[in-house]
Each structure stands twice: as structure tokens, then as C-alpha cells.
Amino acid sequence: MDCQDEQLVKKICDLYEKISKLESLKPSEDVNILFKQLVSTCIPPNPNIDVTKMCDTVQEIRQKLIKVCGEAEGHLEHHFSSILTSFEDNPLHHLDLFPYYHNYIKLGKLEFDLLTQNLNGFVPKTIAFVGSGPLPLTSIVLASSHLKDTIFHNFDIDPSANSLASLLVSSDPDISQRMFFHSVDIMDVTESLKSFDVVFLAALVGMNKEDKVRVIEHLQKHMAPGAVLMLRSAHGPRAFLYPIVEPCDLQGFEVLSIYHPTDDVINSVVISKKLPLVVSTGNANGGNSCLLMPCNCSKIHARMNKKKNMMMEEFGAREEQLS
């Protein structure tokens, strides 16, 4: 790193020290000021900064910073979701009250365009969003502006987040019929994952490399062959805010596209497809060889449609077991 890059990293570390001294990460004047400074410091694209090659002290600060950013983001979404649900008319008509709403509009359009390019015209019938939170803006933006006939299933481990999110969409006659919420750890969801054409994984599900890879491995094990996995990642100094997902983390998936925004959209987008099943067969020499089984898309989509009708009953039973 040159001197200018070192100064940037030092400024980020100094901001972490100030943030770590806050009594609470809930929205307040001090919290808002510090996090705005942090985001504005990290957002200018700088490909020269590779956080994975920095010293152990900076790496430790980065991990702590990602954690506090996740906690602060959760408080912020909970705060604004509570405000929005207090409106007597449709709360979705007031989403622009959320300070980062227009970033989600840009990110939703970006992810829809990438999805369209890589699905070759196929429109997903069912989408799962893992880690949707109390303000599921990605699902709402996609459902209202881009995928107007698609069913969305939002997964979050926090029942209070899902309660707010469900209330948020309940007054909308269209979205409320196409959006469902499930309070469950995604690691406990298995067979149901085969029912989705696309699975979105939120940036802060798995805040460190080990946890992120563990979730990806679970999704790879249970998603349908040929289904798409979309993930949020980070690049350059933005990786002080969110975890990085690298192609080597996506074992069992074919990486189709990686996009690093250079505007005020913070997250990079990684789109991948689960590879066809691999089976071992004996060969003439007595050893084993691996064959890739072709993906029969028509059968997969037929199975998805059949299972979609059973999903709500299965999810309800699963939630009762976990409660």
C-alpha cells in the first residue's frame, strides 16, 4: 500500500475505535454521524486495498467492524420498520423514509439485470431470501418492480424481525399474497430448499469466512441442481463493512458473474449456479470415475411446482417444532 492507502486504513481503524466506545448502536445522532463517516470513507473504489493481505491487527479490527456494522444495521432496519408499520395506509408507500432506500432500488435493478442475463429469459417462479430482517427491501423491490408474478419466501432466525416484516407488507393487496416469512435457522431447512429457482444469501448471514462457507455448503447440499445462488460480497475498502465471498468459497457451484459496483451501491454481487449431481461409477480398471449427471430442467421445475403447494404446511410444522 502507498501512503495514501495507509492513511485510509488508519482512518477506518480510528472510526472503529470511536464506534466501539458508543454506549448503544441504536439510531441516534452520534451513531448516525459515525456510520455515515465510515461508509463515506469506505465507499470510494480502491482496487489497491486487499484486506485479506493486511496485518493481523487490521484483520481483527475488520472482523469486529463487520460485526458492529451488522448490529447497527439491524437496529436501523428495526427502527424504520416500526415507523413504517405505524402508517394507517399502505406502509410500502412510504419506503423512501428509509435513508438507504434508493440504494436498494439500484441494487435490486442490478441484481435483476444479472439474474436475467444469466437465466437466459427464464423467470423464477419461487425465490428464497435468507437473512431478510425486519425491513426486507430486496424482496419488496424485486417483487414490486421486477418480478411481479414471483413468490418470495423470506427466512430469518429472529421472530421479531419477521413479525415486523410481515406487518409491513400486510396492507399491500399484491405483495402480501406473494411474500411469506419463516422464523427458522436456515441450517435447519433442508428439503424445502429444493423448491426454489433462486436463493439469495444476505451479506451479513455468516459474518466471518468460516460461518459464510458453512452456510454456502448447506445450501449447496440441499438446493436443486441448476438452481441459482446469489450472494452479496465486498471489494476493496468496502470489505471493512461486509464479508468477502470468493469463487473458491462456492464449491459445488459454477460462478456465472461477479460484479463490483463503483457508485454508492456498496455490495458486490456474485451469481452462481449449482452444478449437476456428481455420481461415482466403477471403471474397467476397478477404480472409480466421476460423471456429471445432466440437469433435466423440465423435471426440476415440475418438482418445484409440485413442492411449492406443500411448502406452507411444511414450514408451519417445522416452525412449531422449533418454537
Describe the structure.
Helix 1 crosses helix 3 (56-84), helix 3 packs across helix 6 and helix 4 crosses helix 5 (137-146). 45% of the residues lie in helices and 15% in strands. With 323 residues, the chain is α/β, with parallel strands linked by helices. The model is unreliable at 279-315 and 317-323 (pLDDT under 50). A hairpin with a 5-residue loop joins strand 8 (278-282) and strand 9 (288-292). The protein folds into 2 domains: 3-94; 103-322, 3-Layer(aba) Sandwich (Rossmann fold). The strands form 2 sheets. A 7-stranded mixed sheet has the order 3-2-1-4-5-7-6, with helices on both faces. Strands 8-9 form a two-stranded antiparallel sheet. 35% of the residues are buried. Synthesizes nicotianamine, a polyamine which serves as a sensor for the physiological iron status within the plant, and/or might be involved in the transport of iron. Keywords: S-adenosyl-L-methionine, Transferase. It catalyses: 3 S-adenosyl-L-methionine = nicotianamine + 3 S-methyl-5'-thioadenosine + 3 H(+). InterPro entries: Nicotian_synth, SAM-dependent_MTases_sf.
